[in-house]
Amino acid sequence: MQATADLRHAVQLEDLGYEVAGRVILSGLTLRSSARRIGVVGRNGSGKSTLARLLAGLLAPSRGTLRVEGIDVQADRKAALATVGILFQNPEHQIIFPRVQEEIAFGLRQQGRSKSEAAAEALRVLALFDKAGWKDAPIQSLSQGQKHLVCMMAVLAMRPQLLILDEPFAGLDIPTKMQLGRHLDRCAIRLLHISHDPGDLRGYDEVHWLDRGRLVASGAADLVLPRFTAEMIRQGGLDDLSQLSD
Ligand SMILES: Nc1ncnc2c1ncn2[C@@H]1O[C@H](COP(=O)(O)OP(=O)(O)OP(=O)(O)O)[C@@H](O)[C@H]1O
C-alpha cells in the first residue's frame, strides 16, 4: 500500500496528462473528490475512456499523478486490483471464460483467493443477485443485458472501493438499464460513472465535464449537466462529423 497522510481524497488527480504517439489525449487534469457518486461527462473522443483506463491503472500517465483511495494504481497493481473495479461498455471486452461461475471466480483468483474460496464466493454473489441458477450457464447464451450483469457481479465480487463505469449501459434498453442501475444503487461503494449522456448522471453528487482532454467544468450535477446539454445542442446545430475527432 502506498497511502500517505496527505492524500485526503478518494480520487485525486494532479496535473494528469496522457499522450500517445506524440498526441496529447488528456492534459492538466486536476480533480479531487471523495463524493460517493462522481460523474464524468464529455463528447465522443473527449478522452473519457482513456481517463477510465488511467484510473483503473491500465495505462500509465505521461505526466502528473493519480491516486485512488491513496493508491498509485499503476505502480501498485496488487493494491489496485483490491481497490478499483471497472465495467466497460462492451461485456465481450471483459468476459474471458465460457461459463458464469468461472468468470466471476476469475477476478477473485487474481486477488489471491484459493480455487475453492473463489468458487464459493462466486456462488455467494450469484445467490445475492438471485441468479444461483446461472452458475453453469454458457455466457454466450445470455443476452447483452445479462452479460452486463455477469460482468457487474464479477467486478462487485472483488469488493472494490471504487467502481468505474465506462458507459456500461450504452446500447441497452430502458428496462435493462434501470434494472442494472438498481443493482448498482444497492451497493455501498463509490461510483465514478463516465458517460456522454447527461441522463445517466442525473442526481450525481458531482459531475466533471471533459472536453478535448481537459476539464472545463466541475460541480453539482444540476449545475454542470444543464450547461453541458445546452452546449451539446449548440454544437449539434453547428458542426458535422468531420469535426468530431479534432
Ligand atoms: N492508443 C491510442 N492511439 C491513438 N489515439 C488514441 C489512443 N487512445 C485514444 N486515442 C484518441 O484519443 C481520443 C480520446 O479517446 P477516448 O476513447 O479516450 O475518448 P472517449 O471520450 O472515450 O470517446 P467515445 O465517447 O467515443 O468512446 C480519441 O480521439 C482517440 O482516437
How does this structure look, described?
This protein is α/β, with parallel strands linked by helices and 246 residues long. The chain has helices at 48-55, 77-83, 100-110, 115-128, 144-157, 174-185, 221-236, and strands spanning 11-20, 23-33, 37-42, 63-68, 84-87, 162-166, 190-195, 206-211, 214-219. The chain has one domain (11-239): P-loop containing nucleotide triphosphate hydrolases (Rossmann fold). The protein has a 6-stranded mixed beta sheet, with helices on both faces. Mean pLDDT is 90; it is low at 1-5. It binds adenosine-5'-triphosphate (ATP).
User: What's the end-to-end separation, in Å?
Assistant: 39 Å
Q: Unreliable segments (pLDDT under 50, ≥5 consecutive)? A: 1-5
CATH topology: Rossmann fold
Q: What would you call the shape?
A: globular
Share of helix among residues? 25-40%
Based on the structure given, which CATH architecture is correct? 3-Layer(aba) Sandwich
Number of helices: 7
Bound molecules: adenosine-5'-triphosphate
Strand content: 15-25%
Order of helices and strands: EEEHEHEHHHEHEEEH
Q: Any idea of the CATH class?
A: Alpha Beta
In this structure, how is the largest beta sheet organized? 6 strands, mixed
Number of DSSP strands? Answer: 9
- CATH-assigned homologous superfamily: P-loop containing nucleotide triphosphate hydrolases
The mean pLDDT is 90
Total number of domains? 1
* Oligomer designation: single chain
Family: Belongs to the ABC transporter superfamily.
GO molecular function, one term: ATP binding
Pfam families: ABC_tran (PF00005)
Keywords: ATP-binding, Nucleotide-binding, Transport
